[in-house]
Predict the 3D structure of the following.
Amino acid sequence: MFTRRAVVFVSLFAVLPALVAADPWYVDNDELFKDFTEKSQTLAAGGKCLGTADLKKKTAADSTCKVDPAKPTDKRHDPEDVYDAALPGVFLIGSVVKGKNDKGEDAFLDGRLGTAWVLAADGVLVTNWHLFDEIEENESFTVMNHKREVFPVTDVLAVNRAADIAVFRVAAKGLTPLPLAEKQPRVGAWVGVLGHPGDRYFTFTQGAVSRYTTAKRDDKRERWLSITADYAYGSSGSPVLDRTGAVVGMAALTESLDYPEDPPAEAKKDEKPKDDKPAAKGSSLQMVVKLAVPAAEIRTIIGK
């Protein structure tokens, strides 16, 4: 059982003018990934990360923990201020795998990548459970913040596989927690997503809540928050934020809606094409549905 103190988020918004730089941050994806990989390999080689056997055991079955999240406020903020306040609390999570390189030499190889966010200041973070699914032998997990500080994953505190949630610990203190919403936003409400889609690290997109949906799968009830803010692979675990800066959900998966193609009509033998140009072919993709874990589902595994 774990108990964490709540942190008042309003204090960070109060000092935002002093934190925001005059010039925008130009993210160098290649340099950031290189730094993350090198530091992760060093931590893995030094045995700082949770071992494979413990990782598999702790993520194989549902469990709960006790964490008191930071409390949200009622004050609404501009989207750019929501981003600035959330940035210190959003991390890149990834893994390296000890194996053989192309020359047959012992080496740490790149593993998986996703997004995580801070739930409690003393090193408790949240991401999707599927990032820990089918763990390889000698796979080690780490996280990195926007300052390129890298910390090893040292424990898994709680898991809900059906809701796709994993709460875990890293070896870090004094982190910036994101407040967890106490009520779900209405359909149509503004939301922002901060994560790492397609290796475009620390990307902020905006949209709205489009609906809530539920389905029964494998005898378990799933509940999802649908949003229109864009995200892609690498965004798994990204916080979905409201105008107060509170986490109302967590990006989990996407569903592509393709137009069903009609069966081809038989061409008439005596019919000639109207011109000699080939017909234009467009994509059958019409829409991508974004499904997120509602904050209410996260609360179910951190209250015991």
Summary: Residues 94 and 112 are 5 Å apart (CA to CA). The two ends are 7 Å apart (CA to CA).
